[in-house]
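Exercise 7b. Backbone tokens:
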């Protein structure tokens, strides 16, 4: 039996979403977002966020991020992001491509976060108005971060205040948005527009959907020509109702919250158990559903032999691994992982 801790992308689909897709596939519906489900989704998202929003369903997180940033930055713009952000490290230049050449200005920071003082310093040194320099256009943060940590509401408010003081919009990459909301114990509104977020890439694929994300504008004036950019970029799906059906079911009955709560709970259980093993060191605090942890080599080899899958995060010789829990991960899987880890913890390297 294989136990997969490599990514929450390895998980299947929530039964509730699968059922909604089957039921919604009956009969015909107008294409390209003109179906009833997509039309109703706007009101559902507005209720979810407690304010009027404009949304654009897409099928991938890279599309959500790149298209969102394409309307925030001109080709000569600078988008400020964390050095390890997904838009910088894992999207094959999509943000630069969709913006027609904007520059990602990368800021380092502990635990995967941009820190307010660093953002203020970078923006203070930007050559605004100089024809020789890219011009500040937007700030992008990831919530939860690529380190598995979570920005506090105060941290988001502080970053938003700095961005807005420079007339820059704040974009949030929310690939693990639900996990962050659950971690903070807040509402989606409190973690977004009430904290100063202007545009959100709303992720659902990692938390129970097949392939469903949405670009959410809390300031509709920023949407500009996104309708045309989405079509030109190949992301206006003809049978859009099947993306919208996923999102509709995801938001119904707090399924999004239940799934994220399970994933976070399994991560916390895993972190507690690993923390009791000698020689185990955590690279970052575990605040959502990702763990970055240094494990002794005998433990790593024992886990691999037992069929557990995970990534060695800094190369095949590295003892730093990333472990990710998902909405469908069971207590039994975590318990078995911990038993194997504990069994091999005291063994010498073969």
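Sequence design result:
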């Amino acid at each position: 039996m294989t136990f997969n801790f490599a990514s929450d992308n390895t998980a299947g689909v929530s039964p509730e979403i699968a059922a909604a897709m089957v039921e919604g596939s009956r009969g015909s519906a107008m294409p390209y977002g003109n179906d009833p489900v997509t039309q109703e989704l706007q009101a559902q998202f507005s209720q979810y966020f407690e304010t009027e929003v404009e949304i654009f369903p897409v099928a991938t997180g890279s599309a959500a991020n790149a298209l969102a940033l394409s309307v925030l930055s001109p080709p000569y713009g600078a988008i400020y992001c964390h050095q390890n952000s997904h838009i910088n490290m894992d999207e094959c230049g999509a943000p630069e491509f969709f913006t027609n050449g904007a520059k990602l200005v990368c800021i380092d920071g502990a635990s995967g976060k941009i820190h307010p003082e660093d953002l203020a310093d970078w923006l203070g040194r930007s050559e605004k108005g100089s024809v020789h320099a890219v011009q500040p256009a937007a700030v992008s943060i990831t919530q939860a971060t690529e380190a598995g940590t979570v920005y506090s509401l105060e941290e988001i408010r502080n970053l938003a205040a700095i961005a807005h003081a420079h007339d820059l919009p704040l974009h949030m990459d929310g690939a693990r948005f639900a996990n962050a909301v659950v971690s903070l114990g807040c509402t989606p509104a409190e973690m977004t527009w009430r904290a100063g977020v202007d545009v959100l890439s709303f992720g659902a694929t990692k938390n129970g959907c097949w392939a469903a994300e949405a670009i959410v504008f809390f300031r509709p004036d920023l949407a500009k020509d996104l309708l045309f950019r989405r079509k030109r970029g190949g992301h206006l799906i003809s049978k859009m109702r099947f993306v919208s059906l996923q999102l509709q079911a995801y938001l119904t009955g707090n399924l999004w919250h239940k799934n994220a709560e399970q994933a976070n709970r399994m991560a916390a259980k895993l972190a507690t158990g690993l923390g009791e093993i000698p020689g185990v060191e955590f690279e970052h605090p575990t605040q959502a559903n990702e763990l970055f942890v240094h494990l002794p080599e005998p433990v790593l080899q024992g886990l691999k032999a037992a069929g557990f899958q995970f990534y060695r995060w800094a190369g095949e010789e590295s003892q730093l691994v990333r472990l990710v829990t998902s909405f469908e991960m069971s207590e039994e899987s975590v318990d078995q992982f911990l038993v194997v880890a504990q069994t091999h913890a005291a063994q010498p390297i073969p």
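Instructor comment: The chain has 13 helices and 13 strands. The chain has a mean pLDDT of 96.
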